[in-house]
Design the sequence.
């Protein structure tokens, strides 16, 4: 047992596959009772790191604790303290909502099964679907049931692998409300996501790229640390005879993204960017200076560290 104020506290954790470090000297401290989001391109080691933290595999080097237990010696204890929600639904489609909960409650040897299940169904608003076959539930309700099942032994840490993937926006919103409510009652949540709107809701973010931890912190800390500024240009204000693609030729613009009717030009030297933009488009364009988004920060970090996706 390691006494610790953090739900996850790891130092230089490394895992090799085929002589390659797919998780490379990763150190993180995650306070208790928050939602922490792990992001990164596919193949970056997110699942491997998650499996190490859940006690499912051991790291080849480094040390640390999860839920107060040692990553190497305490894997059995860690497993008992975690509620894991996999990306692919692992529910029994031909069992009802109640039967799925009851089955898992039996596996965990829940002392007061009926009461526990009834409370969980209330908490996750599943009571009215109690007798529905799981197969007929929508993606959002299946996800809710998966979270309720992961929560059956009241774990201090809930680990979710891309909880928003394949789910409609309203259901995603509802699931996030649930997760936030759980943290209000002291549960810690660790999840992976590819959605920037979800990332913005996390109290702490970790960005992992091909095994390397590129940044960690709150959204504001990550944006401030990047030193980036963004110019948001209205597409319609760019004169028709001058193509938008000219922006790509402007040296100090480090990241260029289009969102709807706007183009976002991001770089560290805003005066230089504006001078060059005015040089091409004269004073004809309409623009505003905006806070840089996480997406631009992460792209910038990948390029700065010469990591190609
Ligand atoms: P992510 O979850 O970010 O997509 P993964 O952790 O699944 O990344 O994978 C990281 C790298 O490790 C990939 O190159 C993947 O092929 C490799 N990898 C993952 N698991 C194994 C395994 N059991 N054996 C060999 N290579 C693996």
Sequence:
């Amino acid at each position: 047992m390691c006494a610790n104020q953090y739900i996850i506290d790891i130092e230089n954790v490394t895992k090799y596959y085929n002589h390659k470090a797919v998780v490379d000297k990763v150190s993180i401290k995650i306070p208790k009772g928050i939602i922490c989001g792990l992001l990164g391109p596919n193949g970056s080691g997110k699942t491997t790191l998650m499996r190490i933290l859940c006690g499912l595999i051991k790291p080849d080097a480094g040390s640390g604790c999860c839920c107060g237990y040692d990553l190497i010696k305490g894997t059995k204890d860690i497993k008992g303290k975690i509620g894991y929600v996999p990306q692919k639904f692992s529910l029994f489609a031909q069992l009802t909502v109640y039967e799925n909960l009851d089955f898992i409650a039996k596996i965990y040897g829940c002392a007061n099964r009926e009461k526990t299940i009834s409370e969980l169904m209330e908490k996750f608003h599943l009571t009215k679907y109690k007798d529905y076959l799981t197969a007929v539930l929508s993606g959002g309700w299946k996800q809710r049931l998966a979270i309720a099942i992961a929560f059956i032994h009241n774990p201090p840490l809930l680990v979710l692998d891309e909880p928003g993937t394949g789910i409609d926006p309203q259901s995603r919103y509802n699931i996030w409300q649930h997760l936030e409510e759980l943290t209000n009652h002291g549960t810690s949540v660790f999840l992976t996501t590819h959605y920037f709107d979800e990332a913005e809701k996390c109290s702490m973010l970790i960005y992992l790229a091909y095994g390397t931890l590129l940044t960690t912190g709150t959204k504001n800390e990550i944006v401030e640390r990047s030193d980036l500024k963004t110019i948001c240009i209205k597409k319609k204000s760019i004169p028709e005879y001058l193509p938008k693609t000219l922006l790509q030729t402007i040296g100090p613009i480090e990241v260029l993204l289009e969102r709807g009717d706007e183009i976002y030009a991001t770089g560290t030297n805003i005066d230089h960017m504006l001078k060059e933009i005015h040089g091409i488009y004269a004073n004809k364009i309409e623009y505003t200076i905006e806070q840089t988004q996480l997406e631009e920060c992460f792209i910038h970090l990948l390029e700065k560290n010469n990591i190609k996706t």
Q: What stands out?
A: Residues 17, 22, 40, 42-48 surround adenosine-5'-diphosphate (CB under 6 Å). The chain has ten helices and 14 strands.
